[in-house]
Design goal:
Layout: E1 10-20, E2 24-34, E3 41-52, H1 71-88, H2 90-100, E4 115-117, E5 123-128, H3 142-161, E6 166-175, E7 184-194, E8 199-208, E9 217-227, E10 240-242, H4 247-270, E11 280-281, H5 287-302, E12 308-313, E13 316-323, E14 326-336, H6 339-346, E15 359-367, E16 372-382, E17 388-398, E18 407-415, E19 426-427, E20 432-439, E21 444-452, H7 455-465, H8 471-496
Parallel strand pairs: 4-10, 11-18, 17-19
Antiparallel strand pairs: 1-2, 2-3, 5-7, 6-9, 7-8, 8-9, 12-13, 13-14, 14-21, 15-16, 16-17, 17-18, 18-20, 20-21
Length: 497
């Protein structure tokens, strides 16, 4: 939550379906407060909720596709697929981080005289589901369960800090199954880890029909982060948590891993374009969010509606987009090739020097996974220091999530300890660039290249826009020739898959 509201203020809640997949949909929710006395409004929090459509008997329903209309809707539509991908990879990201980078507790290095055993923060509470708690189908309102979960989590947090904690974030609120009128819900909460200024509380919910019932259904879980604020609104230092042996130590380490992922995600996703350097350090813990940011930034650029045609030559069109202090270009052509073939050829940066005269070579230095690769690129572009530029680039590729989606190949700069800057080159940076490839007809494919200009390439881009250089047009004519020359090779590869 970005701020708190007070009695007498108006709460405005806006919700909209961002995208429908096969049987699930993403709903974006924005909450703001309004002060009726002075007319001011401010955002409080936002969330993305995933719903699954089910019929009777419980069976998934195939949803109709959502067609975005406005620029904002198109952006959210495109990024929703990346958020879905990120959610599905969250558990594996935690496991990889714990396996490859053992996490140490902050308490081991923090000076504090107060130590609280985790067992003392444990809270259990039982609620009976009554008709006012459920919808017309008899299923418990999700919001009611969330409110009860926050109550027990707040009590657990209070037992650690002996103060009034403030809820800051909720991580991966997961509804595993429904509960009905007449069910008893057992809420369990415990502080998983206490950091210097925040604590994570884990909450789970089990449902059962009556007191004598042996088996219980695990229906909900969430991780909530709390802070304690002083009179000036600043976070207070918290006591050290002493975990229980076994499961308590596991929960403590997993909480540390989730905190690192939150910090990585916050930095990567909120990184401002004006910040220097543009490159973000790559490691195992933030690889999912770097990939998300890479593709989402390109999809956001693609969804912009105020592109202006700057020039057209030999069926190659150049568009420009000016926003605030940023200049972006789009180079577009239509060619006779299958979209999948063009995608496979353009996603392999190792062959880019065959058609792009600005590239000397591109060496694959790390195969992150099947969709993400890191390349070291040497360019012919000469910097102000009169040296060739080199780049360390994360290439993220995506096949269409549903009909009408493009194939995507996104590029952005990252830093790797194994690829430091060297004296003979000037290390350049790429903010956002890449290809989007659409199948227009059975024979024709539209290929669009996007680049958001950084200082290192700005002069080169503006020369092309002003008509003082035709290198963009000649480069993409060479690209089309490359695609036509090698499309049969790709066809053979596809047939052998």
């Amino acid at each position: 939550m970005e701020s708190e509201g007070h009695v007498g203020q108006v709460v405005n809640i806006k919700a909209k379906v961002n995208r429908a997949f096969n049987s699930s949909m993403e709903v974006g929710v924005q909450v703001s407060y309004e002060d009726l006395c002075n007319g001011k409004q401010w955002n409080v929090c936002k969330a993305h909720a995933t719903f699954v459509a089910q019929g009777k008997p419980p069976a998934k329903i195939k949803l109709k596709p959502l067609v975005p209309q406005t620029e904002e809707e198109k952006i959210e539509y495109g990024i929703a697929a990346e958020r879905r991908r990120m959610r599905l990879a969250h558990t594996d990201t935690i496991k990889d981080l714990l396996t490859n980078s053992p996490v140490q507790s902050e308490g081991e290095n923090r000076e504090c005289n107060t130590v609280v055993p985790a067992e003392k923060t444990r809270v259990e509470s039982v609620e009976l589901i009554l008709p006012p708690h459920a919808n017309h189908q008899g299923n418990t309102f999700g919001g009611q369960i969330m409110a009860w979960m926050e109550n027990v989590a707040t009590i657990a947090a209070s037992r650690l800090c002996h103060a009034h904690p403030t809820l800051k974030t909720i991580e991966m609120f997961h509804f595993r199954g429904p509960s009905q009128v007449g069910d008893r819900l057992l809420f369990k909460a415990i502080v998983n880890n206490a950091f210097k200024n925040s604590m994570e509380v884990g909450v789970c919910v089990e449902a059962y029909g009556h007191e004598m019932e042996v088996s219980r259904r695990h229906i909900n879980s969430a991780f909530m982060t709390f802070v304690v604020l002083d009179g000036d609104g600043q976070p207070c230092t918290l006591p050290i948590l002493q975990p229980e042996p076994g499961d308590g130590e596991r929960r403590l380490k997993e909480a540390s891993a989730r905190k690192k992922i939150r910090l990585d995600r916050k930095y990567v996703i909120s990184c401002k374009h004006t910040e220097v350097p543009l490159s973000v350090p790559w490691d195992q813990s933030n690889k999912v969010y770097l990939s998300y940011n890479n593709v989402s930034a390109l999809k956001t650029l693609v969804a912009k509606t105020n592109w202006v045609l700057a020039s057209e030559r030999d069926k190659v069109k150049m568009y420009t987009l000016e926003e605030d202090t940023f200049l972006s270009i789009r180079i577009q052509m239509t060619t006779c090739i299958d979209a999948k073939q063009a995608f496979l050829l353009l996603s392999d940066m190792g062959h880019r020097h065959e058609w792009d005269e600005h590239y000397v070579c591109a060496e694959l230095v790390q195969q992150v996974d099947k969709d993400d690769m890191i390349y070291h690129v040497i360019s012919r572009t000469i910097s102000e220091e009169n040296k060739p530029q080199d780049f360390v680039i994360l290439a993220s590729q995506r096949e269409p999530c549903s009909k009408g989606d493009p194939y995507v190949v996104a590029f952005r700069s990252v830093t790797l300890p194994t690829q430091p800057a060297v004296p003979e080159y000037t290390r350049g940076e790429i903010l956002c660039s890449g290809f989007c490839i659409w199948q227009e007809t059975e024979e024709l494919t539209k290929v669009s290249y996007y680049n958001q200009a950084t200082p290192g390439v700005l002069a080169y881009i503006t020369r092309n826009i002003a008509g003082l250089s035709l290198s963009f047009h000649s480069t993409f004519q060479a690209c089309e020739q490359f695609l036509q020359k090698h499309k049969d090779d790709v066809s053979i590869r596809l047939q052998n898959l």
